[in-house]
Amino acid sequence: MQVRSQVSMVFHLDKCIGCHTCSVACKNIWTDRKGAEYMWWNNVETKPGTGFPTKWEDQDKYKGGFELTDNGKLNIKSTSKTKIIPNIFHNPHMPTMDDYYEPWTYDYQNLFNAPEGPVQPTAKPISMIDGKDIDIQSGPNWDDDLGGSPIYAENDPNLKGLTEQQKHELSAIERLVFFYFPRICNHCLNPCCVASCPSGALYKRGEDGIVLIDQQRCRAWRSCVAACPYKKTYFNWFTGKSEKCILCFPRLETGQAPACFHSCVGRIRYLGVLLYDADRLEEVAKLPDEELVEGHRSLILDPFDPQVIAEARKNGISEAVLESAQNSPVYKFVKVWKIALPPHIEYRTLPMLFYVPPMSPVQASKPEDTIKHNSDNLFHDIDDSRVPMRFLANLFGAGHEGGVRYALSKQKAVRWHRRAETVGDVDRETADRILREANCSREEAEAIYELTTLCKFEDRFVIPPMHREQAIEMMKDPYEHKKEVGFGFVSGPARGL
Amino acid sequence: MDPRVLDQFLFIALPYVCLFTFFLMTIYRYRTEKFSYSSLSSQFLENKQHFWAVVPFHYGILAVTLGHFIAFLVPRTVLAWNSHPLRLYILEISALAFGLLTLIGLISIVMRRGSFSKIREVTTTTDWILFALLIVQTVFGISIAVIYPWGSSWFATVLSPYLWSIFLLNPDISYLAGSPLLVRSHIVLAFLIIGFFPFTRLVHLLVVPNPYLWRKVQVVRWYGNK
Ligand code: HEM
Ligand code: SF4
Ligand code: SF4
């Protein structure tokens, strides 16, 4: 057993209101620069929808992530080690700006400078790349809220395996449904971006697992852009370097939550330490699809287990981090309650951002003139939900429903339980039966309820002291060090000649 | 001016100045402006013509550069190989083919950069100068191959000894006596490109990834010693 710690995350989709505050917070801090205008290290997608970049989940097109070969090897789909030699000059699976969108601004000067005329002057949209007039085809959140749209929702790759009838129902007006899917880099345990980089510029920080791109070593071979199945490494077209979410490590190191976490209006985001067994990574990444979710969860170690604690200490994990792991809200959601699931685990990068799948309204139909709910139950059967189980299973279970069904049943049981407690219009016995069916005790339901709805800042973010500052004086003059933190160098990030 | 002085300037002074600039400035740039070492790929902005420009150029230039290096390093082996006419023809024809591939690639690169306004946005003056130098140099090279054939053999007897004399700090330009103007221009331009190298995007070929093929798949960096 080799114990490592990882700063991990949970996004509670039932709470996301799709306000994009998180995206804007991130944009203002990190990507409001030339070359990075089109990047959204944090973005919020509408599901069903095609996402950003368009149809990123379609790996027949993008070739992201790993694939398990017939002889049991884990291969990078886009550029395996041998293919890198021809592919370095021209990467056949590199997404281009058209897959994202071309950033633009408006010619505001025209409002002031236009000559007098019979009509009001306008501010034409102009490209932020070459300054030319632009016919806007796509932009950030272009498919926002367009559930049911034949262009976007109907082309969601997660609709695979749904029956024609189910697909049809998703766009019928009386059953329309969508939910939000905020995304950042998952800071994976088996990051495909890192594995693919010919320069070794990408790395995972040993102490906290944050995945970063060394800007000094990146040479624009752009393998990582093609390799990340979540399309969370972006190519800066101006500096000629790839960039990605840094989980706001400068904030974390000073004890603050990442900007998107901090600003989240729905308070859907949780952050905390998970301990995991690094020796078993390869074994788990090679499991068959149906065992991946369970396997991934089995990597996570119990921070209260004396043996784990002893091994962790041996591996240099400090007491403060251990304590932080014991208080981690992520540990509860993922390992204890098992209601948070990894996105698209079938890409085999072992993501460390987990999602609590969303509940959705009961299906309705329109037999006559009025819309009727298919179920009279206050909290309907989860199989009657408007978002088909199959769809969620494609997102959060590698196509297998088990984990999603378990998570949704438990959430439903918590609602029954709280309804019985507070309103009292459902009887206690039924609530208890539903709790039992969902494998949930009353205490557990209470705990889930509290961490979901009454959570304060300190409950949501249990940030370990990140020991970057540890004994820095022994290695370096602190004043020198101070100049270099952040991007880690002092010469400006200017484009080369 | 005495032509001998000019020769000494072009084939002794200039090479040393250029080589010195090359070594000094690549190291200096690497140490002070490491960030600027990048292939500065433009594939993200234009992906269709990209393949037909960058790929032929690189396969061509890599083969041609490798050929020059081999002739420089092991001239005797090349001569021994060429002792057989058939092998000489094969070598000459493939060298010419790679030269043409380079030229075609270069022209496509320039056309691509000129025709897409987004790509023009990421093209610097240095780039244009570099492309011009490379095109002229490639045209010289191809012309030499056509006008003065069997270069693979006479390179080994004429140019290799001269280049070695430069590198061994004992310059001897008598080897070049009688070589045609075209060949002399090719040499001068080669040194100019070497001198210009550290100030251009060409530095990317010094940082071509090498440990990738045998390094561990995942990279983990620890802060302290681990
Ligand atoms: C194994 C060695 C090399 C590798 C891996 C390599 C790789 C690359 C890459 C990835 C690009 C960016 C292409 C793009 O996406 O736009 C590039 C561009 C370029 N390389 Fe190389 N290169 C190598 C050797 C060379 C050599 C020997 C030369 C010439 C002396 C050269 C000259 C150039 C030039 C001029 C460009 C700019 C092309 C353009 O305008 O698109 N490279 N190289
Ligand atoms: S989500 Fe993508 S960029 Fe982030 S660690 Fe995983 S593979 Fe790398
Ligand atoms: S800020 Fe929070 S609630 Fe708003 S879109 Fe982002 S994740 Fe959802």
Layout: helices, strands, pairs:
The complex is a heterodimer of chains A (497) and B (226).
Chain A: E1 3-12, H1 21-31, E2 43-47, H2 59-62, E3 66-68, E4 74-76, H3 84-87, E5 104-106, H4 109-113, E6 125-127, H5 164-171, E7 179-183, H6 192-196, E8 202-205, E9 211-213, H7 223-227, E10 233-236, E11 241-244, H8 249-252, H9 259-263, E12 269-277, H10 281-285, H11 292-299, E13 300-301, H12 306-314, H13 319-326, H14 329-336, E14 353-356, E15 364-365, E16 372-373, H15 389-396, H16 402-422, H17 428-437, H18 442-453, H19 457-460, H20 472-475, H21 478-484
Parallel strand pairs in A: 1-14
Antiparallel strand pairs in A: 1-12, 2-7, 3-4, 5-6, 8-9, 10-11, 12-13, 15-16
Helix pairs in contact in A: 15-16, 16-17, 16-18
Chain B: H1 3-32, H2 49-73, H3 75-82, H4 85-115, H5 117-121, H6 125-147, H7 151-167, H8 181-196, E1 220-221
The structure holds protoporphyrin IX containing FE and iron/sulfur cluster (2 copies).
Residues 185-188, 191-193, 211, 228, 230, 232-233, 244, 349 of chain A line the site of one iron/sulfur cluster.
Task: Give structural notes.
- The complex is a heterodimer of chains A (497) and B (226).
- Chain A is of the alpha+beta class and 497 residues long.
- Chain A folds into 2 domains: 9-100 and 141-252, 2-Layer Sandwich (Alpha-Beta Plaits); 269-275 and 289-460, nitrate reductase domain fold (Orthogonal Bundle).
- Chain A has helices at 21-31, 59-62, 84-87, 109-113, 164-171, 192-196, 223-227, 249-252, 259-263, 281-285, 292-299, 306-314, 319-326, 329-336, 389-396, 402-422, 428-437, 442-453, 457-460, 472-475, 478-484, and strands at 3-12, 43-47, 66-68, 74-76, 104-106, 125-127, 179-183, 202-205, 211-213, 233-236, 241-244, 269-277, 300-301, 353-356, 364-365, 372-373.
- Chain A has a 4-stranded mixed beta sheet, with helices on both faces.
- The termini of chain A are far apart.
- The model of chain A has no long low-confidence stretch (mean pLDDT 91).
- Chain B is an all-alpha fold and 226 residues long.
- Chain B has one domain (3-213): Transmembrane di-heme cytochromes, Chain C (Fumarate Reductase Cytochrome B subunit, Up-down Bundle).
- The interface between A and B is large, with 54 and 49 residues.
